[in-house]
Specification:
The complex is a heterodimer of chains A (118) and B (110). Chain A is mainly β and 118 residues long. Helices cover 0% and strands 51% of the residues of chain A. The termini of chain A are far apart. Classes of the chains: A mainly beta (118), B mainly beta (110).
């Protein structure tokens, strides 16, 4: 299993970014996928999930209405569209795969860094 | 502010056992056995250690074990080793969202 994130960048407050995650080593369209972030020197923060079929989404309150999770199963890719960014969104963003056998994340990418700064 | 509370730090000497607690405030935390634990080594992505309170994924050392009583879940590491020095996170269905992490506990091996 491999998850490779990209798209992290430095952006000004109020700006937008789109993160991508390309998956390999498993049948991507069988699994729920997540985004989790980690601010510098802080803990893990779950932010969103998307079901295998792209139908069911959940968001943490901190990003609801600003972030949109999506996927393209034909390209084995997961996305996170981030709008109206604030300095509070500065973090390393991890793409993660949920196990098909139990309710937990079983694999993580290495993360892509997002910095929101003026 | 996470709904799952962990101690900020714990420490132990090689060979000892330590326990990290994770206290939840929601009834869903108490009623559902959906608690997992992750180890994050410095500069690395998290790694799953425990799922569904007590179960270990294939390949995880038997030195790691989990339990839960009431509104508190626990991760116990026995036979502490230097390479166990890391940050540990609990994760659970906390009611308000399908997944929430505790604040993390830094384990120092003395």
């Amino acid at each position: 299993v491999q998850l490779v994130e990209s798209g992290g960048f430095e952006v000004q407050p109020g700006g937008s970014l789109r993160l991508s995650c390309v998956a390999s080593g498993f049948t991507f369209d069988d699994y729920t996928m997540h985004w989790v972030r980690q601010a510098p020197g802080k803990g893990l923060e779950w932010i969103s999930l998307l079901s295998w079929d792209g139908v069911t989404t959940y968001y943490a309150d901190a990003v609801k209405g600003r972030f949109t999770i999506s996927r393209d199963n034909s390209k084995k890719s997961l996305f996170l569209q981030m709008n109206s960014l604030t300095t509070e969104d500065t973090a390393l963003y991890f793409c993660a795969k949920e196990s098909g056998s139990y309710n937990a994340i079983d694999y993580w990418g290495q993360g892509t860094p997002v910095t929101v700064s003026s | 502010q996470s709904a799952l509370t962990q101690p900020a730090s714990v420490s132990g000497s090689p060979g000892q056992s330590i326990t990290i607690s994770c206290t939840g405030t929601s009834s869903d935390f108490v009623n559902y056995n959906i608690v997992s634990w992750y180890q994050q080594l410095p500069g690395k992505a998290p790694k799953i250690l425990i799922y569904e309170v007590t179960k270990r994924p294939s390949g995880v050392s038997t030195r790691f074990s989990g339990s839960k009583s009431g509104n508190t879940a626990s991760l116990t590491i026995s036979g502490l080793q230097a390479e166990d020095e890391a940050e540990y996170y609990c994760c659970a269905y906390a009611g308000s969202s399908p997944m929430e992490f505790g604040g993390g506990t830094k384990l120092t091996v003395l």
